[in-house]
Design brief:
Blueprint: E1 2-5, H1 14-21, E2 27-30, H2 40-47, E3 56-60, H3 61-66, E4 78-80, H4 82-91, E5 95-98
Length: 99
């Protein structure tokens, strides 16, 4: 399953709600302001302690650059471009958007 998060974790509970339902083999894609969850400081404080094992987290490159965050993204995040976004939607079914 692909979970898409488009809201910042600093103003929305979308990511927190998503993590309650996400399975170990699911993928999470951070887009738009959701990429703020990919920050090293956020990841180390909120996500890494959850020991998400096989859960894979992606962030959209264009949204990271648009917000000037590229030097602050956690190494645990898989950065993808728009073609990678399309690939995720084709290989993960169903898709759930959280906002």
């Amino acid at each position: 399953m692909l979970h898409i998060i488009n809201k910042s974790p600093f103003i929305s509970l979308a990511l927190k709600d998503c993590l309650r339902f996400a399975g170990n083999t699911d993928a999470i894609l951070l887009i738009e302001d959701g990429v703020y969850a990919a920050l090293e400081t956020y990841m180390s404080k909120h996500l890494i302690p959850l020991n998400l094992n096989q859960l894979t987290i992606y962030a959209l490159n264009e949204d990271i650059y648009a917000r000037g965050l590229i030097d602050r993204i956690s190494s645990k995040i898989n950065i993808i471009d728009y073609p990678g976004f399309v690939d995720l939607t084709l290989t993960n079914n169903p898709i759930q958007t959280w906002s």
